[in-house]
Amino acid sequence: MPRRPHHKPRGRHHHRSGPKIGLALGGGGARGLAHIPVLEAFDELGIKPACVAGTSIGSIIGAAYCSGIPARELRDYVVEAFKHRGEVLSRLWKLRRERFADLLTPSLGNPVQLNSLKVLEAFLPDGVAKDFESLEIPLTAVATDFYSAKPVGLSQGDLRQAVAASMAIPMMFRPVLIDGRVMIDGGVTEPLPFGFVAKGVDLVMAIDVVNMPKGDAGRVPSPYESIFGATQILMQRVLAERLAVSGPDVLIRPNINVFRVLDFLKARAIIKAAEPAKDEMKWALEKALRRF
Fold first, then answer.
1. Nearest CA to 14 among 68, 51, 61, 85?
2. Each residue of 186-198: b (16+ CB within 10 Å) or e?
3. Diameter of the chain by CA atoms?
4. Closest of 254, 263, 287, 220 to residue 36, by C-alpha
5. Phi/psi of residue 58, each to 5°?
6. Structure pTM?
7. Could you say which DSSP state residue 142 is in?
8. Using one digit for the tens of pLDDT, what is the confidence trace for 171-205?
9. How far is CA 184 from CA 86, 227, 263, 268, in A?
10. Which of 34, 67, 141, 197 is least surrounded, with the fewest CB atoms within 10 Å of its CB?
């Protein structure tokens, strides 16, 4: 398993003075790797968000970044971790007896559901905190309470359990029980959690990586593609309704529509495709610094 290189902790106060920024990292499966180059814009300008909220893959990237791992190290780690298909399959193979091929093509009658916490810990880099109190930057991992049908912001206690709940995509992962409540993927109710970072900040920035299903108009999708495509459509509709009422001060949308939810083996390509979004974020941050 690739390990990230040692780095000096950034600390809570070693950043350029300026506006207090709340940053929201949206859900979107492998497309969420596009968050990484956008986060590099913060590091390169010496700026640190005052708080971060993440949904699903956004909570994973957020947990690593808020633990003090620089975005550039995250880029190197992710590209290496998903460089070889055999290495990825090997990690997943150890989690359960079913073949990884079954994960890619589950049936409705016998869905393969993985333990999201085990999958998370199989791929997390070294240095990610185990509890929220150990984070350098406050983080809220957003999940969905299955029975109340409401988003839940998790920001105390076991960080990894909270992130596992936030990423528990229905059909793919088993629901996670937290404080007696059944939690599933946060994207069901809050695909881009900018509302969770709006309090007490000067500026709210958000990165949307949901996108829409991609393909030829006449091609019938597989059952698996239909499930994830329908989820994308739902998430976009929920987000559109949120934005119609109010939205973040800065909304970044990387051009990554050609990638699918489980295209983690295309990590390098996804990150490369998000480079223009990094420049967009850097421009927005520089503008914010001039204003404040």
1. 68
2. bbbbbbbbbbbbb
3. 57
4. 254
5. -65, -35
6. 0.86
7. E
8. 888 999 999 999 999 999 999 999 999 999 999 99
9. 29, 15, 21, 28
10. 67
**pLDDT score of 72 more than 50:** yes
Consecutive H or E run containing 88 = helix 85-93
Amino acid at 215: G
Tokens at 94, concatenated: 């150890």
Residues 6+ apart with CB under 8 A from 66: 52, 129, 135, 136, 137, 138, 139
What average pLDDT does this structure show over 4-19? 49
Non-local CB neighbours of 238 within 8 Å, separated by 6+ positions: 189, 190, 191
- Gap between the Cα atoms of 227 and 234, Å rounded: 11
HSE-up of residue 224 (Cα within 13 Å, Cβ side) = 14
Nearest Cα neighbor of 71 from 169, 137, 157 is 137
Beta bridge partners of 236: none
Residue recorded with tokens 């333990």: 115
Model confidence over 74-131: pLDDT tens digits? 999 999 999 988 777 776 666 654 445 544 444 445 456 788 999 999 899 999 999 9
Tell me the residue type at 234: L
CB 49 within 8 A of CB 42: yes
Closest C-alpha to 58, from 151, 188, 167: 167
Q: How far is Cα 205 from Cα 23, in angstroms, rounded to an integer? A: 5
Reduced to 3 states, what is the DSSP secondary structure of residue 208?
Answer: coil
